[in-house]
Amino acid sequence: MPETTSSSTSADNAIDSSSTPTETTLLTLIKSTTPPCWLNPLLFNGHLQTFYTALKSTDIPITYKRRTFSSNNALYPGTFAVDFVSHTPTSSSSSDPDPSLPSRTSYYSDEEFEKLGGEDDEKPMLILLHGLSGGSHEIYLRHVLRPLCLDPKEGEEKWEACVVNARGCSMSEITSGVLYNARSTWDVRQIVEWIREKWPKRKLFGVGFSLGANILVNYIGEEGAKCELDAAVVVSNPWNLDVSNLSLQRSFMGKNIYSPAMGTSMRELFETQTEEDNRHHEQIMKYNPDIDEAKVRSIKYLHEFDRYVQCPTWGWPTEGAYYRDASSIDAIYDIRIPVLAIHAEDDPIACDAAAPYVEVQQNENVVLCSTTLGGHLSWFEIGGERWFSRVAEGFLRKMTTEVDLDALKNSRTSGTQEGSVLHAKKKPVYHGVAKKLQNPEPHS
């Protein structure tokens, strides 16, 4: 990895633009930016860490401006909402909130949207994907945004950022008859391409959380060497969904706490979009004639939602087939950009058995940072800060200021970097992102 280093030994000094570029590895770079992990000793296991998310109330006043995009995917048309971090809060997002939107969120006017920065804008930008049934309002997401977009270091410009809300999430409407699944990569692909076209000089970084991390890894693997992101961070990715599902069903806490909580949230999300007085109800049910609404209303566990809603909606025969097909673990082999994956061994949802310890050894573009404690999207330190946000911040700052991203991109697009998937010439090549559920052939 091409890196620009300063002759000074002080990490606080600015990078010397005259420095001679040196080579380093992604692993070495991440080790240099990752702070020690000292978590709150009172939260001494993954359950306590995860539960504390609901108990610890932290106000991080990120303000968003929402824009609704029309999908350019012919198979999955409709709209989806993208929330852009706003650096200029307006009265409409504070004193006169819109009840149809999350707090501190207002719509862009057409005029405001047209006035967004021009093509010469070089500010780095984050593109974030939230977890299951979440949205831009999630506090774990705001912990990553705060040091870069709200409270940057002295002399540093605020980063730009946007959150791609999954369809139906964060108080957005379903207009296509479908929600989203663990390999719904089309909306994030459209936004990345749109941002790259609008701001060609910006450095773009992806950040995914939980199910959003799974989607992001699938997207990066599908894009391969042509991925428009410069690097990415994924946090608490379930990786192997079949293994994670079985872990939930076979543990007391998983079966009685986590799976019911997630299953209920997804059932309520679906019901919100399909209430009898909802103008989209007829469209949604027409698009999904195989959904049995009586069974949906009886859903208790997450795997039941996937069985009764996701499978008939998308075409998988069973939830097991869905999990195996939508898992992101094999996408690792096709990744060609730097990816930092943060994982806790005691994560009760994205279980340790599903973590890609062996897979990442086959691709030097991916580094798995694993801790013994941390829970799911938690890693609470004394005082309530989250350790993973400091890890993400350090990595992203390093990639922005000290890594020659242009040289890195040229190496993967010119063919000089084949990744590190180990295979000999003239042998079959393993494609990690090849999926079993195939889109229908277009009619001639």
TrEMBL record:
<comment type="similarity">
    <text>Belongs to the AB hydrolase superfamily. AB hydrolase 4 family.</text>
</comment>
<dbReference type="GO" id="GO:0051793">
    <property type="term" value="P:medium-chain fatty acid catabolic process"/>
</dbReference>
<feature type="region of interest" description="Disordered">
    <location>
        <begin position="1"/>
        <end position="20"/>
    </location>
</feature>
<dbReference type="GO" id="GO:0047372">
    <property type="term" value="F:monoacylglycerol lipase activity"/>
</dbReference>
<feature type="domain" description="AB hydrolase-1">
    <location>
        <begin position="124"/>
        <end position="357"/>
    </location>
</feature>
<feature type="active site" description="Charge relay system">
    <location>
        <position position="347"/>
    </location>
</feature>
<dbReference type="InterPro" id="IPR012020">
    <property type="entry name" value="ABHD4"/>
</dbReference>
<dbReference type="InterPro" id="IPR000073">
    <property type="entry name" value="AB_hydrolase_1"/>
</dbReference>
<keyword id="KW-0378">Hydrolase</keyword>
<protein>
    <recommendedName>
        <fullName>alcohol O-acetyltransferase</fullName>
        <ecNumber>2.3.1.84</ecNumber>
    </recommendedName>
</protein>
<feature type="compositionally biased region" description="Polar residues">
    <location>
        <begin position="1"/>
        <end position="16"/>
    </location>
</feature>
<feature type="active site" description="Charge relay system">
    <location>
        <position position="210"/>
    </location>
</feature>
<dbReference type="Pfam" id="PF00561">
    <property type="entry name" value="Abhydrolase_1"/>
</dbReference>
<dbReference type="InterPro" id="IPR029058">
    <property type="entry name" value="AB_hydrolase_fold"/>
</dbReference>
<comment type="function">
    <text>Displays enzymatic activity both for medium-chain fatty acid (MCFA) ethyl ester synthesis and hydrolysis (esterase activity). MCFA are toxic for yeast and this enzyme could thus be involved in their detoxification by esterification.</text>
</comment>
<dbReference type="GO" id="GO:0008126">
    <property type="term" value="F:acetylesterase activity"/>
</dbReference>
<feature type="active site" description="Charge relay system">
    <location>
        <position position="376"/>
    </location>
</feature>
<dbReference type="GO" id="GO:0004026">
    <property type="term" value="F:alcohol O-acetyltransferase activity"/>
</dbReference>
<keyword id="KW-0808">Transferase</keyword>
<dbReference type="GO" id="GO:0051792">
    <property type="term" value="P:medium-chain fatty acid biosynthetic process"/>
</dbReference>
<dbReference type="InterPro" id="IPR050960">
    <property type="entry name" value="AB_hydrolase_4_sf"/>
</dbReference>
